[in-house]
Amino acid sequence: MEAKLEMPDTCNSLSEDITPKSISFDMWNGCTLGNLRTKLGQNKTFKPICIYVLKEVTEYLSRVNIQYCVCGGTALSVYREGGKMICHDGDVDIAIFESDFSSVVENLSSLTAIQNGYISLSDKCPVNGTSWFDVDGSEISYSGCGGKRLKCYATRKLWDKFGIRRDLLFDPSLAHLDVFTFGQHPDDPACFCYNWNIPGRYDFRRKCFPKSCVLPLKTYKFEGVSVQGPNSLETFLEVEYGYLGRDAMFDSVSQLYVKIPASIYKKMPQKIKKVLVNDDGMNAA
Known about the structure:
Layout: H1 36-63, E1 68-70, H2 72-80, E2 92-97, H3 101-106, H4 112-115, E3 119-122, E4 146-147, E5 149-154, H5 156-161, E6 176-184, E7 191-194, E8 196-197, E9 209-210, H6 211-214, E10 218-222, E11 225-229, H7 233-240, E12 248-251, E13 256-259, H8 262-265, H9 270-277, H10 281-284
Parallel strand pairs: 2-6
Antiparallel strand pairs: 1-2, 3-5, 4-8, 5-6, 6-7, 7-9, 10-11, 12-13
Helix pairs in contact: 2-7
């Protein structure tokens, strides 16, 4: 039996001043009690588009023989929700190895959805906005600054294909897929790390993913789509997230998710509690 990782007791690091209004369900403070109902509605509307983008991109990666794995909230959906997308998760996440980054970009002509104008792609660093290719077209290796990923956005044309109302202001962030990159962890040869270092939010050195929990990859189902994922989802997710329950909040000190303290949970609106414990949270709200 695989040994479980020792999880840090991060609950004790939480401030006594935490209130329901200060709770964030993600690391970006983009999903809170104040906007959760709006997020649920948005995600219900755009989930089919996110799944479409995931299917197109993963089929492309398979055609060009690139290994990928679900990660982030998508991996948590597979592990905890039986493959159903978490109701307040607004995007889809996969990862490739950095060594395959150039190959993925160079072969995009075979990604039909891009050629048809349904998906647009950016390789820009989210911190400084620069490309991961220099002026000569050579790939820039990750050096610990910013985030090395590809971002695949649904275009307005794809919104139209799915019948999204024309009066809605177009916002590409509402339906997208992140393709993160994995690299060798600089401090542990037995581990991978995300090439993702966002000051105050995510320190890539603090999260060591044992190579044995990632490879060999396994096949899972996510919203009816066959996807590749880490061979030990639980170990992988405990490194990435910490606490894996539905009643989780992000703790910026530990950069992990922790269980919402009971004293705070009991003050939360009943409808929000129902969302957190219900298998169909979108309808529960």
